């Protein structure tokens, strides 16, 4: 048996109690089919899609066919999942009493497709004026809600089945978990105008460390009132809805907040209802005790609301990641969750 530091690491047996899958080299697999079926049913059956126009809900899952597995090969996690779902729905108009039935079909929930590329088709059992309105409502508004919920399943699948798949090595090190990567593995957003200005090195970190800082300016349009957007940023229920997780939120001056499992945290500096929110804001990965200053100015227009964000004191090396965090985890998620991104 080779000793540590000698020979090909693929053949080194680490001093582990179980002595299994040394160096994470061998292929290991977990079957996620039964778990996935139960999780998809939990997430979708009873799921409600509601607005001022209509109220629709998923009554049951008529078909769920496919598979899901998690693999570890050479220390890399690989997830395979492919599902064909047929859901039964029922709904009514908010101002009406007649209920209509139909189906929602999701034929291609798989790792090969981005959540935004998942097909969602809607049909009605019996055509009528009310049924046609509800069908259109589900196609234009409900589709994003369904995709968002399926995205939760994918995240939970990766989180649940990454546990124990990558084993610690001799030195106690481990590969970065998916959960750690989620906050920085991002894609760019939409409907944004951005301006970035670098600032000279300023001693602003809580530990006296000299940091090269930068500023971020973004403007976003939302199809809602100023009061709606303000509420989405200070209401625990609404923040939990668009962040898809538990939050800590004290909407008052010097009140604390923690979002995304503590990866974003800070405190409120100023709150002007429906007009302005100022926060001391930081990513958990930033230098200890260093905060940026975020100012959100809310301007209600005739048919939409414009939000202008200014963020100063960002570590320059974190500027691009911070911009992408706002794009994906705030702007895009808010628009998808509440349907505030749909402009005619």
Automatic annotation (TrEMBL):
Which SMART domains does the entry link to? Aha1_N (SM01000)
Q: Which InterPro entries match?
A: Aha1, AHSA1-like_N, ASHA1/2-like_C, START-like_dom_sf
Q: Which Pfam families match?
A: Aha1_N (PF09229), AHSA1 (PF08327)
Q: Read off the CDD domains from this record.
A: SRPBCC_Aha1
- Identify the residues that the record assigns to the Activator of Hsp90 ATPase AHSA1-like N-terminal domain, covering every copy: 29-163
User: What superkingdom heads the lineage?
Assistant: Eukaryota
Classification via PANTHER family: HEAT SHOCK PROTEIN 90 HSP90 CO-CHAPERONE AHA-1, LD43819P
The record's family statement is: Belongs to the AHA1 family.
Q: What is this protein called?
A: Activator of Hsp90 ATPase AHSA1-like N-terminal domain-containing protein
Native species:
Ranatra chinensis
